[in-house]
Design goal:
With about 450 residues, the protein is mainly alpha-helical. The chain has 22 helices and no strands. It has one domain: Up-down Bundle (Growth Hormone, Chain: A). The radius of gyration is 22 Å and the shape is globular.
């Protein structure tokens, strides 16, 4: 492309210069994350009826404990699988890892339909979590490496919105599947096999990242020189270093990784401390007014999810317009400010649904800063590993949340107080975020 053509392209709409290859990448990564969202929200919707069939009647009073255990185990698998998948994506390729992840979580979800005890169910859901976690870092790295600089943030936000769409689709399908009887949860997991069909299209139509292919060739050449006993340059030494170790070897990279971990922990704890309690809180307000609590909990969940979809997509557009740093900090601040309004000051149910929508936009939507910003901070040789570590390592802490949720509500004196105490972690995000470099409009490190 000539300089004049490039200028024209830059002045046109952001989507005007995108190629078919780039649109296919967005389509594949968005669908991959959409199915991830479906699998995870399907678990939240079906775990209770599944446990009612898998446990003995004498164990029914303990269903909330088993429910929290299943959700926590799933999150633990997500954290472990996410880090593992990111490392593998740096060594075997973005496309190949995406195929493996989608096939794995489709198969494991389908097998969940045949669980015969709560323990077998827990093991299968752990394996689903491992597979689901390994897909996101792969897609985020691929989007960053294939989409152009001026639209990179927008593409990442649109990819991330697939999670909220998956949540919404799961809730919609469950409305039709739930009335099918005691085994309806099994049918829901059988539907979860369908994402495997996506791999047929990805294998045929999806491109591999050229940046990864170049970095991998350089890594293999450096490793060959090392195996031959040659003295390696500093650049070659980095290429032959294990990527997860590489994150913490260099002082600058180590400091950057720590900041990202704290920011990701902020987003993750904030999300779980708000999203988990929005439906039951609004349901309790409805119950005090003599209305159907379950119905209003559903309304709250749908409103929150709809807001999340908007938030996921908007972060990318805003970050491309105003910068990664100010947008991320703004989402932290607004999520924090909305929490007391939602849980303490508003009592009108219609207003609560509106607040749930905006809370979803800012508390859930802020997840998009990760695929937008993190890939721009690391070179290709370790990009997927870095993205995966930052996104998933906090889950190795957050998985305890479902185990402790009931205890925290009691200890803090109610849902609202528990949400307020935990959401104060947004202050941590506001403190550490300024220490990251701004990357808007800059080329990816190679």
């Amino acid at each position: 492309m000539s300089t004049q053509q490039a200028t024209v392209a830059d002045e046109g709409p952001w989507y005007s210069s995108l190629t078919g290859r780039q649109w296919k990448t967005l389509f594949a990564t968005n669908l991959g994350w959409l199915f991830d969202g479906f699998e995870n929200y399907a678990l939240i919707l079906t775990a209770a009826p599944a446990l009612k069939q898998l446990l003995e009647p004498a164990q029914y009073p303990q269903i909330p404990v088993y429910f929290g255990t299943i959700i926590g185990i799933n999150l633990l698998g997500w954290g472990i699988g996410g880090i593992l998948g990111g490392v593998l994506a740096d060594y075997i390729g973005r496309k190949r890892m995406m195929l493996i992840a989608i096939l794995a979580y489709s198969i494991m979800t389908g097998l969940s339909a045949f669980a015969f005890s709560w323990l077998s169910f827990a093991i299968l859901r752990f394996l689903v979590g491992v597979a689901v976690g390994s897909e996101w870092a792969t897609g985020s790295s691929m989007m960053a490496e294939i989409w152009p600089e001026r639209a990179r943030g927008k593409g990442a936000g649109l990819m991330q919105s697939g999670l909220g769409i998956g949540f919404f689709i799961a809730a919609l399908i469950w409305l039709f599947v739930q009335p099918l009887g005691d085994s309806s949860w099994r049918y829901m997991y059988l539907i979860g096999v369908l994402p495997a069909l996506l791999t047929l299209w990805i294998r045929r139509s999806m491109p591999e990242s050229e940046l990864w292919e170049k970095a991998n060739a350089e890594r293999e050449a450096a490793q060959a020189r090392k195996d031959a006993g040659q003295t390696l340059s500093a650049a070659d030494a980095k290429l032959t270093r294990f990527t997860l170790t590489d994150l913490f070897t260099d002082k600058e990279t180590r400091g950057r990784t720590l900041i990202l971990f704290l920011m990701s922990l902020t987003t993750t704890v904030g999300f779980w401390s708000i999203s988990t309690w929005v439906p039951p809180y609004i349901a309790s307000v409805a119950a005090r007014g003599g209305l159907q609590a379950a119905q209003w909990a559903t309304y709250a969940g749908m409103s929150y999810t709809a807001g999340s979809i908007l938030g996921y997509a908007s972060v990318g557009f805003l970050a491309d317009a105003f910068g990664r740093k100010p947008v991320t900090m703004a989402f932290y601040a607004v999520a924090l400010a909305l929490t007391p309004v939602l849980f303490f000051w508003a009592q009108d149910l219609t207003l609560l649904l509106v607040l749930a929508f905006f809370s979803g936009a800012f508390a859930s939507g802020q997840y998009s800063w990760m695929p937008v910003w993190i890939p721009e901070l690391y070179p290709t040789r370790m990009r997927a590993t870095a993205v995966a570590f930052a996104f998933n390592a906090p889950r190795l802490i957050a998985f305890l949340g479902p185990f402790l949720a009931g205890t925290m509500v009691v200890a803090f004196g109610g849902i609202g107080k528990a949400a307020m105490v935990l959401s104060s972690i947004y202050v941590l995000g506001l403190i550490v975020t300024p220490f990251l470099p701004e990357t808007r409009g800059k080329p990816l490190p190679e």
